[in-house]
Amino acid sequence: MRHMRVWRYVDEVARTGSLRLAAARLNVTASALLRRIADIEADLGTPLFERAPTGMRPTVAGELFIGWIRGQGAELEQVRSRIEDLSGLRRGRVRIACSQALAMSFLPAEMAAFQARAPLVDFAVTVRDHDGALSALAEFEADLALIFNPPPNADWQPLLQLGQRLVAIMAAGHPLAARPVLRLRDCAAFPAALPDRSFGARQILDARMAGHSAKLRVALEANSFELLRQFVRHGEAITFQIAIGAPTDDPGLAVRPIDDRDLAHGPLVLGQLKGRTLPVAAAKFAERLAERLDAARMVG
What we know:
Layout: H1 2-16, H2 19-26, H3 30-44, E1 49-52, E2 55-58, H4 60-86, E3 92-98, H5 100-104, H6 106-117, E4 121-127, H7 130-138, E5 144-148, E6 156-171, H8 184-187, E7 191-195, H9 200-209, E8 217-222, H10 225-233, E9 238-242, E10 253-257, E11 265-273, H11 280-299
Parallel strand pairs: 3-4, 3-5, 7-8, 7-9
Antiparallel strand pairs: 1-2, 5-11, 6-9, 6-10, 6-11
Helix pairs in contact: 1-2, 1-4, 2-3
Pfam family, one: HTH_1
Organism: Roseomonas haemaphysalidis
Family: Belongs to the LysR transcriptional regulatory family.
């Protein structure tokens, strides 16, 4: 696979935009890396990068070649995974891009349960908003994405979809904690601690409140659910997220569903890059997640 190592040089320069930084990550000298790239450009008969004082930027030909490199790398990983599966090793790495709500409890529990049966499989997880997760799939940086309320995308292949309602999270002693179900207009009477607008939950809230006479008064906006939870624990503010990641076992917090009449819900979707054959470990973990999410739908 020595040619793959050379192709990785090109890919690393594209990812970093810097010859010096790429050389440091690859543990080669910058001059050696530049010679390798020059050799490839000579073979192809065209420059792959534009050299500028601000860094290295792929040309149109470079973008095409880098896309091909990443596709080849993904296919090689899938073949290697199948060979290992035939030998009974059950090795592999599962790369996942997920919404932050899934990283709090659901996904860690599922990964631990999977590794109990397949201890030679490891995981690499990146927490992304839905646009970032879809980009990670397209760039072959992730095998699977588990994201809430993704936008339409022609390269996205959903494997399973599960409806998720928003829940309100507040201190256990909050005045609204005594109610089993809340309306958004009830919540508007208190300060709001909201995820930023890159989150699907925030987008749904904004859409639902756009036509409301009552408005949420934002006391805190953050890109961390953990920060939002800790904030509402100490006052009368209320935060919101999807039900699957809600802290239902925290005695200091109360979790209450938003009434269906407010239409505060959206899809949680497990998916992959359309047309891609997943490595064995990723495919098997996707099957497990689909089964678990489907079971959650049946319970709901």
